């Protein structure tokens, strides 16, 4: 909570559950009209500008912002309203004497999830609901495994009330704005009759709707299991939250344009948590730049064209493959060729068609589609949060390496010598795999009802995710590794966890150490450490922006993730990043620039292992549509050269710190850390001062290249 919110805490003009006193009608209407883009006079536009940097989404911040607009003139003299129904929707609840039975369900100001208020002739009844069909969502309320079985009911015309009570003693700054997940979605986004589920926080949403020939599919099971998962932010046992929540408003004087000191503090705290395998949730941060929505107008501006073809995950095709796979395995008819062939679960349409399909009801001739446009390349990186930019250490490393050409020379011919002379005039790498910059930031467009099954993100990367428009339920799992005696046993455990149904994992204490769900809405930025398992349900069409990054302090988690995918990448992850190895090697190449620093010992040893034993950690690329390069071309010569020179750097650091450079012994040091040590970066540090006078030794071109 920032100083403005604290200063106004005692004089808030809002009553419990968002009911507004009569004297605040003018301010409420003016502020709400700004949300609905209704034209106002200059004074009203001045009020709109005060909200232009609306960083916080907490209830108190939103309410105190309205109080700052207290000097706005009465809207009756300045706002043109042509639709009386709009005005009715904006009026607050009138203050009337509370009836004697005020505590009865019919008069307590709330309704149970999935039900509506009793009928009334009061024209102001429920007048707060039309604020963008929003409801005030408290964080998940302390469910336990045995108490939080989701309530599932066939769909009716009833829907969740617009306001949910906060638990007693719950600070309203923890609340967040959530679009309705029921109102108006049946028909456009969900087929009529789709079942509903009540989540542990009391919010009701539709379940996944895609079926194959009327057969029940595991997507519904996954969503139901996610709904039973405990709160990742407020554990029922009163212990440490599973996700660390960072209130950026209270840590920075200006959360959009922070000072150097504030930036160092915030980024340092995020790194510390991530290095221990703890996800971080930044609340109240609006992405800079244009505020895009999931609609044609926004996405044409964002992507440049709606006619461009996109390839997306198709829920129905995925279900068809899963059912076929299960049937053939059960009947023992699954051939080696079938099992080795990547499933075809994608469809193609233009971007405009994909957008339209999100809200287009299905017909017999044109069935409804449920799709997920994964990792849609972001043409602009303007929306990158400043704390994410500071965590992109692989990009900082490539910047530091920009003046050095590590490429091996071409074959020794007269033409090759001329090429070499020309290349000598150009410093730095000349060819980069598209994945090098595409993985840093991407957009995620998802239709309502899509489920992403349990996986960890590919390439050993850390991940950030911000919601622009819509909602995502994000369930995080920490796989239990205590008692496992070998790295192979750890790899097998993650493989088993990825194959096991989420319904079983929720209640399997032997397989999962903890599990929790976070509801992500606009203003949230979730930052995941490498290798954390998660699954996602999208209950309403959603546009999100995210990306991947690599950090020195997280390399022990990156190595673990890549080592798991080396054996089970076809099961444990849903993507591949061919640029991973080059980005990791650039971290090593940039170390001489950090000769006045120290690094955590365990993450550095993991980095050294990935560099010295580079072939073991190569990312899989077969059948993934990855860019291909001529074997003797410059791209491969650059990659091979960077690997060889990166090995020089890590070897020098190992020698300077009196650590063996034997790959097998380094692997043993890294892989023997099991159980509670698996995610721990440790306290010992590596001194990089040995690199102050480091000079690369020229390596001749290998004959095998």
From TrEMBL:
Q: Which SUPFAM superfamilies match?
A: Clavaminate synthase-like (SSF51197)
According to the UniProt entry, which residue ranges have a biased composition of type Low complexity?
Answer: 109-120
Q: Where is the composition biased (Basic and acidic residues)?
A: 158-173
Q: Segment Disordered: which positions?
A: 36-63, 90-187
* Protein's name according to its UniProt entry: JmjC domain-containing protein
Starting at the broadest rank, the lineage of the source organism is:
Eukaryota, Fungi, Dikarya, Basidiomycota, Agaricomycotina
Q: Which domain of life is it from?
A: Eukaryota
Where composition is biased (Basic residues), the residues are 46-63
């Amino acid at each position: 909570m920032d100083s403005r919110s604290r200063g106004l805490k005692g004089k808030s003009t809002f009553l419990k559950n968002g009911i507004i006193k009569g004297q605040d009608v003018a301010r409420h209407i003016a502020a709400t009209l700004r949300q609905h883009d209704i034209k106002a006079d200059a004074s009203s536009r001045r009020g709109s500008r005060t909200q232009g940097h609306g960083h916080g989404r907490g209830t108190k911040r939103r309410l105190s912002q309205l109080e700052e607009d207290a000097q706005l003139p009465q809207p009756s003299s300045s706002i043109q309203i042509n639709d009386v129904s709009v005005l009715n929707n904006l009026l607050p609840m009138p203050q009337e004497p509370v009836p004697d039975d005020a505590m009865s369900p019919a008069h307590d100001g709330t309704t149970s999830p999935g039900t509506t208020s009793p009928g009334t002739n009061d024209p102001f009844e429920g007048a707060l609901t039309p604020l963008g069909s929003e409801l005030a969502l408290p964080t998940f309320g302390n469910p336990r495994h045995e108490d939080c079985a989701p309530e599932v009911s066939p769909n009716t015309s009833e829907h969740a009330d617009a306001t949910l009570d906060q638990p007693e003693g719950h600070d309203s700054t923890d609340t967040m704005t959530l679009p309705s997940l029921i109102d108006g979605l049946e028909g456009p986004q969900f087929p009529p009759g789709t079942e509903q589920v009540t989540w542990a926080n009391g919010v009701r949403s539709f379940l996944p709707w895609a079926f194959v020939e009327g057969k029940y599919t595991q997507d519904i099971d996954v969503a139901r299991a996610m709904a039973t998962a405990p709160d990742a932010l407020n554990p029922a046992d009163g212990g440490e939250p599973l996700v660390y929540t960072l209130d950026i408003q209270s840590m920075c004087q200006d959360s959009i344009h922070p000072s150097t000191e504030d930036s160092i503090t915030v980024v340092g705290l995020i790194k510390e948590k991530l290095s221990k395998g703890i996800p971080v949730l930044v609340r109240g941060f609006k992405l800079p730049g244009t505020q895009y929505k999931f609609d044609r107008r926004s996405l044409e501006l964002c992507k440049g064209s709606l006619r461009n073809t996109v390839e997306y995950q198709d829920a129905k095709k995925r279900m068809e493959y899963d059912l076929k796979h299960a049937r053939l395995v059960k009947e023992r008819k699954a051939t080696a060729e079938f099992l080795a062939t990547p499933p075809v679960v994608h469809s193609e349409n233009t971007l405009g068609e994909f957008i339209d399909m999100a809200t287009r009801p299905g017909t017999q001739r044109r069935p409804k589609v449920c799709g997920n446009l994964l990792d849609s390349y972001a043409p602009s990186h303007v929306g990158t949060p400043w704390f994410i930019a500071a965590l992109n250490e692989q990009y900082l490393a490539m910047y530091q390496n920009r003046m050095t050409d590590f490429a091996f020379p071409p074959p020794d011919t007269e033409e090759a010598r001329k090429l070499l002379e020309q290349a000598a005039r150009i410093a730095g790498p000349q060819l980069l795999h598209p994945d090098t910059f595409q993985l840093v930031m991407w957009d995620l467009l998802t239709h309502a009802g899509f489920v992403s099954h349990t996986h960890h993100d590919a390439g050993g990367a850390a991940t950030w995710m911000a919601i622009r428009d819509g909602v995502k339920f994000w369930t995080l799992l920490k796989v239990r590794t205590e008692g496992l005696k070998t790295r192979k046993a750890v790899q097998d455990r993650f493989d088993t966890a990825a194959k096991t149904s989420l319904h079983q994992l929720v209640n399997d204490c032997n397989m999962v150490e903890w599990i929790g769900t976070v509801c992500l809405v606009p203003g949230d930025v979730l930052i995941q450490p490498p290798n954390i398992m998660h699954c996602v349900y999208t209950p309403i069409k959603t546009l999100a922006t995210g990306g991947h990054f690599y950090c020195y302090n997280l390399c022990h988690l990156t190595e673990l993730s890549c080592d798991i995918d080396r054996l089970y990448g076809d099961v444990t992850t849903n993507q591949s990043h061919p640029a991973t190895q080059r980005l990791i090697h650039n971290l090593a190449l940039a170390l001489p620039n950090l000769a006045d620093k120290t690094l955590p010992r365990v993450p550095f040893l993991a980095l050294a292992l990935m560099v010295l034993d580079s072939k073991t950690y190569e990312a899989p690329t077969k059948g993934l549509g990855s860019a291909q390069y001529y074997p003797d071309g410059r791209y491969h010569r650059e990659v091979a050269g960077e690997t060889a020179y990166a090995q020089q750097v890590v070897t020098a650091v190992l020698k300077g710190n009196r650590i063996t450079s034997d790959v097998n012994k380094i692997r043993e040091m890294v892989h023997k850390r099991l159980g509670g040590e698996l995610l721990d970066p440790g306290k010992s540090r590596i001194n990089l001062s040995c690199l102050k006078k480091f000079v690369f030794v020229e390596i001749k071109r290998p004959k095998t290249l």
